[in-house]
Amino acid sequence: MSDTLDIKSVSISRRDSFNARDPHTRDLKPFHSGSIKILLLENVSPTAVDILKKAGYQVDFHTKALDKATLIEKIKDVHAIGIRSKTKLTEEVLSHANKLIAIGCFCIGTNQVDLNFAASRGICVFNSPFSNSRSVAELVIAEIILLSRQLGDRSREMHDGVWNKVSKNCYEIRGKTLGIVGYGHIGTQLGVLAESLGMHVIWYDVLPLMPIGMSRAAETLQEVLAEADFVSLHVPETPETKYMIGERELASMKKGSYLINASRGTVVAIEALAAALKSGHLAGAAVDVYPTEPLSNGPGFESLLRNCPNTLLTPHIGGSTEEAQRMIGVEVAAALTKFINSGTSINAVNFAECDLRAIPSTDMTTVRIVNVHQNVPGVLRQINNILADYNVNKQISDSKGDVAYFMADVTVDNPKEINTIYEHITAINENIITRVLF
């Protein structure tokens, strides 16, 4: 098979590399790894750059997000792209991605990517749902203490040359109640830290989850809002969470309580929050995310929350620590490498999660077929009919939404048979992408 075939259709891997951790299995690597192009934006961690370069890929690294026109031009010729939260991979942008097979979101959120359209093009999306949990939780703890002591306002006054020593409406957090909305990886860590400082923890989640420590689950969101002294939001951006905290919810919070949003900017109605702060109903707020955010650092940030009393505004830095970014770099870069090299879609956001065990190092006649197709009846039967004349060692298939994912390790006697298998599978009407890995 020609080694000039586009990876969008087929990926050829060399047979002369081995798994360093297990000498009895064979690595699957691109035949010409130097022909694989990776575009990394928004100053992702150097650990990710190192991992991808060591895999042999061409890495185009940028410290900032690109404007749409430049992004469209660059994405035409890359096989994978790594972004953070500022880059928007919309249908318009992705429609120009002729070779793209994978997207790495070096952050928790994936709302900046059109996941359904990406899947329909056979583009697998990965994120990092765990690596920055501790960093966000620690920031929220710091904000709880800062808000309870009005330290943001005191610091600003001191910088302006004003000495204003006050104790009124300043409190210890010991004995206060923290309400956590969204009891996932961040929420659970936050609860543990808060309890260690003597706080009571109540939380609400749409899923039935096991309480950690002495925390207590609430039956409704309203219960958390009414009971908590501090409410911290840790939910994804979904149609159900959009503006879930509006005028009515803010009014139901305790007078003199505090709101913290380190989740997504669209979760809170900013105008209603500003009104609740200026009226004195809320004693303070800390906001790290906004409905619209600047594409680059510098002046130009505008918000109704500017100059609200006892309000901490931070530029989406919840996960911006050296430790978090390093771990995110490792997690996402490893996922991209595994998907490109061996087809593994474990921890994918928009694909079914599939994987096959490694091929024995002594087996030099087995290839791996990786296929993405429309999730309609009869396609899997067509693929298996094509493979019926060959020895299929193992296979796996699963679907998510309108897209199905298929992997199979097939033993061939003659390399020309690979061409036959590839051509027959790609001829299926519902085929999106077929790759062959050696």
From TrEMBL:
Record SUPFAM superfamilies: ACT-like, Formate/glycerate dehydrogenase catalytic domain-like, NAD(P)-binding Rossmann-fold domains
Keyword tags: Amino-acid biosynthesis, NAD, Oxidoreductase, Serine biosynthesis
CDD domains reported in the protein's UniProt record: PGDH_3 (cd12176)
UniProt key word Amino-acid biosynthesis: yes
One of the protein's GO biological processes: L-serine biosynthetic process
Pfam families given in the database record: 2-Hacid_dh (PF00389), 2-Hacid_dh_C (PF02826)
Enzyme Commission (EC) number: 1.1.1.95
Family designation: Belongs to the D-isomer specific 2-hydroxyacid dehydrogenase family.
Name of this chain's protein: phosphoglycerate dehydrogenase
